[in-house]
Amino acid sequence: MISSPVRKLLIRFSMLTGGRLAGAAATLIASLLIARQMGADTLGELSAILAVISVLSVFLSAGFPAVATIFTVEYTTNPRQGHLKGFIQAGWKHAFFGLVICIILAAVFFAMPASPISTPALAGGLTIITAFLLAITV
Predict the structure, then answer these.
(1) To 5 degrees, how large is the angle CA 88–CA 99–CA 68?
(2) Mean pLDDT split into 10-residue runs, the chain, 138 residues
(3) For residue 34, how far is the Cα from the chain centroid?
């Protein structure tokens, strides 16, 4: 029989791996459906938009995912719990300002008539998808 800490670790690992696999499968299915229903050109445009969004997400995260684990553990073991609350509040402020930046960037790109984002395929519904993806990037 596997010991309790090892069992917990294996369960968490399998849940995280399963979540990643489910996300990858959902992305694959969505790509296939978009290519099938809207054509390869639209899929190419969406891929370009997703590439821009993933580059933005690197800059907008500002390292919070990496330091959140360290600070959460450190501030939880520290008897002064106010530090953890302050860190969480700072994270929410950062996320809010990142969202505002994304909305402004999306408004600027969609307003530009010669923008690579304002293509005929996007008029058919991808504009909403793109705006949603930009908003959840933060």
Answers:
(1) 30
(2) 77 87 86 82 77 75 78 76 80 82 74 55 53 55
(3) 20
The backbone region for 64, taken as left when phi is positive above 0, alpha when psi lies in -120 to 50, beta otherwise, is alpha
The rounded distance, in Å, linking the Cα atoms of 59 and 48 is: 17
Which backbone phi and psi does 74 adopt, to 5 degrees? -65, -45
pLDDT in tens, 52-62: 777 777 777 77
Q: How far apart are CA 130 and CA 116, in angstroms?
A: 13
**Chain mean position to CA 92:** 15
Paired tokens of 92:
């929410």
State how far the Cα of 89 lies from the Cα of 68, in Å rounded to an integer.
12
Q: Is 46 exposed, middle or buried (CB count within 10 Å of its CB: 0-12, 13-18, 19+)?
A: buried
Task: Find all residues with CB under 8 Å of 53, minimum gap 6, and list them.
Answer: 133, 134, 137
